[in-house]
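PROTOCOL LOG
Step 1. Enter all chains and additional molecules of the complex.
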Amino acid sequence: MNGAPTAVEDGTTVRALLDGLDVPGGARGVAVAVDAAVVPRGEWDTTTLDDGAQVEILRAIQGG
Amino acid sequence: MATTQDRTTTDPLVIGGRSFASRLLLGTGGFRSLDAIAAAIEASGTELVTVALRRIDPAAQGSIVEVLDRCGVALLPNTAGCYTARDAVLTAKLAREAFGTDWVKLEVIGDDRTLLPDAPALLEAAEELVDDGFTVLPYTNDDPILARRLEDVGCAAVMPLGSPIGSGMGLLNTYNLRLIRERAGVPVILDAGVGTASDAALALELGCDAVLCASAVSRAEDPVTMARAIRLGVEAGRLAHRAGRIPRRLYAQASTPEEGVAEF
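Step 2. Run joint prediction.
Step 3. Record the structure below.
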């Protein structure tokens, strides 16, 4: 996750990963990509993470 | 008599079918705190503000999105830090998810020393995002031909640089900027390089439709006062552009009649 090896249980969903990071469920300003593909918000509950999945969890910051 | 504010509201900036009374876009990079951003937004009068995406930091305090929502401004996510069309397109799609907007300030950077745009990659990413339904505002070189190509693929505006990001060197090639404005059928937003209010005024005087600045405000000694100064510079420049300046002349032209001068 975000470039660091992260151990999760089999069947862990994107939502569960976010909950573990204290990201509120509907948080605006957060986005998730798994293996370089966007995971839409509506699929956070159903998307499970396979072994070796490259997960990027991004949030809004100041910029531009 | 109409005040400046009255005139600007009857002279809206229209991008992608959306109207803005303010011709100043504000970047949020470089501010010392979220409170400082909110204060600068208020002083600037801006209605459109950039944000970026980075890996989540559980230790981060406060939410910039909440602050910007409270300010009532629209969000313009950027793709800063992307060096390939692929990364920029994916970042734009993530931003669409994160912020619920299909507007994007498209940046594809070619070099970390100058932060100048990578023209072929920019064009490629712009075309792909337009095809995917995005309203694309590309940060581009001050190249009239590239600006035209970006417009041709469907960008909603073009955002040529005045000088490199954060350099504060102002408008280095006013000739090219005038050519871009003369030929463009979409708004031209001067992006990058503004150092102070006169740079913003000059951009509008040249005919640019708006200015985007970040560092000029956020890194000023007094960001709130600079936000107001640049706001006034933008308004002054726009009015001067509409008023039609006198042509430059090599020699003087007396403003006082020469007839009837006393002879002693």
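Step 4. Note key features.
The longest strand of chain B covers residues 48-55.
Chain B touches chain A through 34 residues (CB under 8 Å).
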